[in-house]
Request: fold
Amino acid sequence: MEISVLQKVRASYEPKLPPAFANGALVTVAKSDPTESISDQESIQKLFPVNYGKPILEFSVGSQKKAAKPINVGVILSGGQAPGGHNVIAGIFDGLKSINEKCKLYGFIGGPSGLVENKYIEITAELLSSYRNTGGFDIIGSGRTKLETAEQFEKSAKNCKKLGISALIVIGGDDSNTNACLLAEHYCMKRTPIQVIGCPKTIDGDLKNLFIETSFGFDTACKVYSELIGNISRDADSARKYWHFIRLMGRSASHITLECALQTRPNIAIISEEVAKKKQTLADIVDDMVKVICKRAKKGRNFGVVLIPEGLIEFIPEIKKLINELNEIMTKDESALNFLKTDEDKTSFIKGKLSNESASVYVSMPLQIQIQLIKDRDPHGNVQVSMIETEKLLIQMIESRMSLMKSQGKSEVKDVRFKAQTHFLGYEGRCAAPSNFDADYCYSLGATAAALVGCGSTGYMAAVRNLTKPSDQWLSGGIPITMMMNMERRHGKEKPVIQKSLVDLHDKPFETFAENRDEWAVETEYLYPGPIQYFGPSEVCDQTTKTLALERS
Ligand code: FBP
Reply:
């Protein structure tokens, strides 16, 4: 297969490792005192009697050399792609081989379903050689099947037994790691000799806490989006005729939007967590935006850049209420709704069923969005929030607000000439070649996972810390997954889950943004980060995200 010049050169990049792995994955382990979950301790302990309370593990260089017996390990990629997944697998592979040359690594195909359906390949040195330091999850593929039932757990155990697998490594986000912990507990309870280890993955950056400093892929994805936003901003400032509305991936939390705002200084960036905190309505958000547009127009700047987080819509209280009502109506009245022929019939049927408050929010939306809200449904029949084109919704609402203000003869809109362009950035960054940071971090996470397997652990997440320092000061070890859990209501039931990290409005990344945003709104102070650099001076190649730097400063 022909590969690009960059890929060829990049293949020989040797990712850096924490000092604990100087002699490979046979490490010395230090243990902390027993741990507790972040809250709901009693309930979590009851649900995880074996894995609850385990100590934090910290690795240092081991002296043992290749004495351990060979282990067969299975690896799964779960959920959305994130740059660096191949390097996690490379780190696991090399780590296992450092334990014993005869260790084998099997990759389950297409995500968790591959484990249940016994679809796998053996990952060999030769296969891996063309995937080192590359983006994507294509070596084995990924999937969104949830591993959560006892039946799936048992089928998986059977398949592992056939391959002699005694450890599984799940590379995934908060849900997949929660399920990895359930799987670990199930196997402990059933005395099935299979260890389960998790690795923190997601571009969304919402799997982090005191011990997991960041999820892999966030660094590279944000750098790719920031490059593109910088390019768009420069175009905006060159042509001076468009407002660019850019929606950014991040299913729930606004970490990506915040990081990109810090990297590029747009005129407006909406942070969903702030919208929720201030209980802003859609009209309030539109109001704020109109003010900035008018202020810039007054200075002759009829152009600008707006960043919108993908998850925004669910953080606006009135829309959250509307969506909940819509979900209920669409389940209860599905057949009546399907019977109606035209979009107009469907929307007016819906209006009649909504509460007064939600009906007035619904009718305030452009027809196209009203239709989208009832048409795009997820497999459970719910509104598919991520499909809603929030950027178009905001533009249309701004336009109607402007024409109303014009018709009322308001002086603020006198200089405004509002023309907008829309963009959605998400898939552009998820499979990018990992930055040096992600290449090193992922390889280190893989080595850590192999070491956790090597020392017989289960129910742990691989953790590499001290990430704002050079890698020779990185620390590596394992964090009990139960430690990150709390109880949350999911589909009407209380469930143990890893707590999702949302943007903290009292932490430095948001505070830095909030201190500067008024100036960035009216002036034109765009920053152009340019493309990710893989070779060259360290200050352009090895910077972490601004979020991580500020959080750890
Ligand atoms: P994960 O949480 O699984 O890492 O996925 C994150 C994400 O990229 C979100 O930002 C986005 O909303 C979603 O996946 C898109 O999902 P899909 O790939 O199924 O279209």
Notes: Residues 79-80, 82, 173, 202-204, 249-251, 310, 386, 430 surround 1,6-di-O-phosphono-beta-D-fructofuranose (CB under 6 Å).
